[in-house]
Design a protein that fits this description.
The chain is an alpha/beta fold. It has helices at 25-35, 43-55, 64-74, 81-86, 88-94, 107-116, 131-137, 150-153, 160-170, 184-193, 219-226; strands spanning 9-12, 19-21, 101-103, 120-125, 146-149, 177-181, 197-201, 213-214. It has 11 helices and 8 strands. The N and C termini lie close together (9 Å).
Length: 227
């Protein structure tokens, strides 16, 4: 990394960076299905099928229709299409609620420390209209000066436009903003293409050959203070 001494603001991806489904996507799907009369669905199978569907999603616009396809694919072989279709709305509403998510333990301390050091904070996320209420429900919205959501601005990461909307709202040059996210294409490459600095958070085993990565979000403070 270079130029971290010039950073005035830090922007964050949300899913996989700040929060994750709890206990997992499959567990949430299974619980919602059970509440609507379809008990006994294996969360592990739902996790695998959701992950496979997400990998195959292609251009994803975060509309109801796009989520309907994900839901149908996740329940394939477990529920018929009519039953799966009926679960879209309760699943959609469930993932707006705080209890369907967990905040990583390093998030609040990091956000508080960054704010106390005078950094402006932002969100840049590929998400839908549920993100703002979700961040409020989780008690995270208060940390951010700017929240930029793909469905609201009509452009998604890794396209430069979503990053540009955020830095315009911050009133800062791109080089003064550091973006942190978990996706190599959407967050690392996308931010750099838009002129921002970027770090990737890799939660889990260390990523060989990734010098611009963090294992935990609180390592960000060390990187900024060492610059």
């Amino acid at each position: 990394m270079r130029g971290l001494d010039r950073i005035a603001a830090v922007s964050f991806d949300v899913g996989g960076t700040l929060i994750a489904p709890w206990p997992s996507v499959g567990h949430v799907y299974a619980a919602v299905a059970a509440a609507h009369g379809y008990g006994g669905l294996p969360p592990e199978t739902l996790d695998r099928q959701f992950a496979a569907a997400w990998q195959r999603r292609g251009a994803f616009d975060y509309s109801h229709a796009a989520w309907q396809w994900i839901v149908q694919e996740t329940f394939t072989g477990l529920l018929d299409r009519q039953a799966a279709a009926a679960l879209l709305e309760p699943l959609y509403r469930k993932f707006e609620q705080a209890d369907a998510w967990r905040i990583y333990d390093d998030v609040r301390p990091t956000l508080e420390a960054l704010r106390s050091r005078g950094f402006r904070l932002a969100v840049i996320s590929n998400w839908d209209e549920r993100l703002r209420p979700l961040l409020r429900n989780l008690g995270l919205a208060q940390f951010f000066d700017v929240i930029t959501v793909s469905i609201e601005v009509g452009v998604a990461k890794p396209a430069p436009g979503i990053f540009q909307r955020c830095i315009q709202a911050l009133g800062l040059p791109a080089a003064a903003v550091l973006h942190v996210g978990d996706d190599a294409t959407d967050d690392l490459h996308g931010a750099r293409q838009a002129g921002l600095q970027a770090l990737r958070i890799v939660r889990g085993p260390p990523a060989d050959g990734e010098p611009d990565s963090l294992r935990r979000l609180d390592q960000l403070l060390q990187r900024l203070e060492a610059s």
